[in-house]
Amino acid sequence: MAATAVAILFSATANAQLGVQKVTKKIIPTFTIGAKLGVNMQQLNSDNSAAASFEKAFKAGVLGGVFLSVDKNKIGFRLEGLVKTAKFAVQGPTDVSVNAAYLDIPLLFEYKVINRVWLQAGPQFSAMLSAKTTTDVDVKNNFKNSDVSAVAGLEVRLPMKLTVGARFIKGLVDVNNIASSNEKMTNTSMQFSVGYRFLN
Asked: Which domains are assigned to the chain?
């Protein structure tokens, strides 16, 4: 009789715990923390084709940083902190290249299209950290310190906590800070990355 009572009590406790877990899973979102590395393909676009300006070509840089995702069912949000590099070549009588570094903070809406595949879109806020020519001349003042972009991308969350992603980033702000120039310049980027999820 005592054994039966203990069995009934154990079963009731187990069922209660299972019920709590199911309710918790339905209510609490999934948090994901990770890091990523990749390639940043970036170019400067000019609205003045006649001016001696930066070459219109995507040149390779690197990117790396961390991310935090909050997801529930098919909907989620992603916040990232990334440092990236970019290279621009000046078209004109003298060949000059500029090496730049940025801090990017994208805030993205996420939607799961199919299992493991997520669409991402939203704004990105950027700050220029440095800009120097290959001869080590500081030209950071030639550019505005901040930029705002629109981001659209795709991420695949693979087994073994890995992710792969691709993004297209279009600058919305004129970044030319040269007072004597009326040329409007905006950034355009394509990014490809591999990530690792430390949590989830």
From this structure: 29-199 (2.40.160.20)
